[in-house]
């Protein structure tokens, strides 16, 4: 009933003080229901956002956000002039661009191939099995990687036999890390990341496909001209989101499997932040690195969204 | 659509089905290998290279006996169950309340939704969050694994969308009968969004079962509060099996360690692997719902 009444009130009156009072009188119960979430967001999301000021401080936990000494951009300058800077930035970019491109292309390819399978009794189990690795914890995946790439692990044995590489623990050789990370990520994420594309296939017009088939278009052409364009908005959306998080290479798995001998290829921004901040207690410095990360991420997100709007006519905001 | 089976089509199908089978094997093989190794004779195991298709040597449950009688593993299991249950309960209650409130037609609906969406796009980052939690006294406190992270803007938006699908006439007639918002939520709306609640529960359970990082930074020194994943990290990643083999004396420690590693992996992963075939449809739904809006 209240809804109907509210809608009848002219717009002008809606914005007067009176209607605020009215709103609270009618909806105080709803606001009360939202209160715990509101408090939660303030404490666990907005306080840390304001805590970002520590990026400009020589932060000492005992003095807090307000009492610590302000140092301007010193923390950022320290990051940019550090010898690790170029290494960390390069690793982050290589690892995420590799993961993003190979990951998306294989997920789309998998979706299209799966779409060609007409028997549900075959298709369903394949899907279920392909999701399985996603549900295994990073600790266990890391344990498997360490086990399989140890000097007499399965993967090492295979590579020694087939490609004749030197027998060693693969995780101590910097030149293998990107590949280990890429393939383990692919193993874990392929099935799960295809879910979104598989659901987008519902948008593909069956009539169009049939008409094209009657006109003599073969499979490949129908896929290329009908199926792919139909899921293009989804692809564009995923691309924008992925580019926006290009610098946020998940530290979860890397923190578990990397070690000082391969920092030259394995250390990324997020692991750098974790190590400097939580192990060496350089709070101000690490939040500056974290802030740099999110600023670049936001710029990339807005930029790719803009480009996508221009080029593909799809945007997420 | 009925398809003519041309020769090229047949070749394509053979390759495609073959590829799918290969993909499934690749997904399962590592897990199967570990399962088989966990029952294998450790001595024969060391001498057998390659993936295990079946148990090698004389089958043994010795590894499981060691793992399941180990106090640390049992502590980890108990703690994980406590964390998963409490974080999921708290999370699903808050998410439902938040989603419901944001789906109602109030004047603060827009600003509150914007405030929520902002938290999905920006975050203070790891270190400021750590400092805030430290000041809240969450260091060394089991609540650190329950309260922070139990809500996620994405889940609230999913829930809000689900509530918005419900026809307003339900609410209006309940109001005429004098029902307050909490009654409307619990008695009328909640039963109608059960499927979406299940989606949120599934996400929260899996996320909390597999989580290790928050525990590693907030409960570093409180072994008695560690979740299973941290004990597994110690054994599988840091290769520290002291706590296990101390009891087993030095006899054939390194052999037993290898067996124990496989058993720990199985013990820690089995519950989630048993649940996921039933949970997957909810995950599919969640991913799809999340993609539709925003």
Give the CA-CA distance, first to last residue of chain A. Answer: 34 Å
Biggest contact? A-B, 101 and 94 residues
- What is the helix tally of chain B? 14
- Mean pLDDT across the residues of chain A is 86
Can you give the helix content of chain A as a percent range? over 70%
Strand content of chain A: under 5%
Which class do the helix and strand fractions of chain A yield?
Answer: mainly alpha
- Biggest sheet details of chain A: 2 strands, antiparallel
Overall strand count of chain A: 2
Structural class of chain B: mainly alpha
Order of the strands making up the biggest sheet of chain A: 1-2
CATH class (first level) name of the largest domain in chain A: Mainly Alpha
- Classify the helix fraction of chain B into a percent range: over 70%
Could you tell me the mean pLDDT of chain B?
A: 87
What descriptors fit this protein?
heterodimer, A: about 325 residues, mainly alpha, MetI-like fold, 2 domains, two-stranded antiparallel sheet, 16 helices, 2 strands, about 0% strand, disordered N terminus, B: about 290 residues, 14 helices, globular
Structural notes for this entry:
The complex is a heterodimer of chains A (317) and B (294). In chain A, α12 (219-244) runs antiparallel to α16. Chain A is built from 16 helices and 2 strands. Chain A is globular, with a radius of gyration of 26 Å. Chain A has 317 residues and is mostly helical. A two-stranded antiparallel sheet of chain A has the order 1-2. Chain B has 2 domains: 7-69 and 241-292, no CATH class; 71-218, MetI-like (MetI-like fold, Orthogonal Bundle). Chain B is 70% helix and 0% strand. Chain B has helices at residues 7-37, 42-47, 62-68, 71-103, 109-121, 126-135, 153-164, 168-176, 181-189, 194-210, 213-218, 228-237, 242-245, 253-292. The two termini of chain B are 34 Å apart. The model of chain B has no long low-confidence stretch (mean pLDDT 87). Classes of the chains: A mainly alpha (317), B mainly alpha (294). At the A-B interface, α1, α3, α6, α7 and α8 of A face α1, α4, α5, α6 and α8 of B.
